[in-house]
Amino acid sequence: MTTKNKRKARILALQALYACDLRSGEDTQTIFETIKDAASVSDKMAAYARMLVEKVQINLQDLDALIQKFAENWVVSRMATIDRNILRLAVTELQYCPELSHKIILDEAVELAKIYGAEESGKFINGVLDSLYQNEFKQ
């Protein structure tokens, strides 16, 4: 899958996670399918996005604990919903997609933050992910 297609898949996953976060208690799969049907993505992009959403949902507590460890002076539940979910996506890719370069994962997360987040979101996401990567994933 090309970098452009992976970005589309990440955007789809981010939209689904954002909706799930706001509509807690609703079926994640139904929310994902509704958003996927409205997007024009290939089956391959949808499959990648679905995998990301499922991994985030299954590992939510562990992801949030890891993010919390490196988000100085922030509580995950009090972060902007979009920032929290961009971080969850990026950490999921760091953990479960070893074939991807960490630089690409971090760059993509920062770009998503710049597009969908607040003015300072890109810097915030970059700081948290850089610290997290350096201390948890760098070998």
Describe this structure in words.
- With 139 residues, this protein is mostly helical.
- It contains 7 helices and no strands.
- It has a single domain (3-137), classed as NusB-like (N-utilizing Substance Protein B Homolog, Chain A, Orthogonal Bundle).
- The protein has helices spanning 3-22, 28-38, 43-58, 60-70, 81-96, 102-116, 121-137.
- The longest helix has 20 residues, at 3-22.
- It is globular.
Please give a quick description of this structure.
The chain has 139 residues and is mainly α.
Provide the gyration radius in Å: 14 Å
Tally of DSSP β-strands: 0
What name does the CATH topology carry? N-utilizing Substance Protein B Homolog, Chain A
Low-pLDDT residue intervals, each spanning 5 or more residues: none
On the 0 to 100 scale, the average pLDDT is 93
In total, the number of domains comes to 1
Percent in helix? over 70%
Order of helices and strands: HHHHHHH
Q: How many helical stretches?
A: 7
| CATH second-level architecture | Orthogonal Bundle
User: Which structural class is indicated by helix and strand composition?
Assistant: mainly alpha
Shape: globular
Largest sheet: none
**What is the end-to-end distance?**
26 Å
How big a fraction of the residues is strand? under 5%
Question: Mind telling me the CATH superfamily name?
Answer: NusB-like
Q: What is the highest CATH level, the class? A: Mainly Alpha
